[in-house]
Amino acid sequence: MKTVKNILVFISALILVTNSIEAYAEKPSVIRIFREGGGLLGYYEISQNVFQNDQGLWQADISCMRPGNRKCNKFRFLNIPSDVLKDFEELTELDFDYIDGMVYSSITESNTSGKFIYNGVCLVMWNYNVDTGGVEYFIYNRMAANNIGFYF
After folding, report:
1. Which DSSP string do the residues of 74-101 spell out, in sequence order?
2. CA-CA distances (angstroms) from residue 124 to 15, 117, 118, 133?
3. pLDDT, tens digit, for every residue of 13-56?
4. Do residues 122 and 31 touch, judged by C-beta distance below 8 A?
5. Chain centre to alpha carbon of residue 44
6. What contacts 52, CB < 8 A, 6 or more positions away?
């Protein structure tokens, strides 16, 4: 009887440890930033959304469009649950600003899309639409980048 009880305790502990590991494991996550048609003072329409995208990745979307007077607080994530963003904990707001600057400084007449790995922490893929002036870029954590075939 004591052996059965020990086995049950061991199995219960194993299940508990396994569930704890899964709960804290890195989730594939991506952040999408989209800006188009802003004015001198900012944007009119700013939206944030979190969803599971077609690739099964948790995606935080931030869109800023049309001329207005509101700042595009692209990296403040007020409405985005922290569990989606926890995989980007290594990045500070300054890192996000630097990534943003790297994207915009990479855009030229002959260079309208590209990708780079930022500090060995994340993959950034960007695209500039010449017709609309819109800029879209994705920031993938390591696991999400691996899921789409990029390893670093």
Report:
1. TTT-TTS-HHHHGGGTT--HHHHHHHHH
2. 37, 6, 7, 19
3. 444 434 433 433 456 688 888 888 888 888 888 887 778 888 77
4. no
5. 23
6. 58, 59
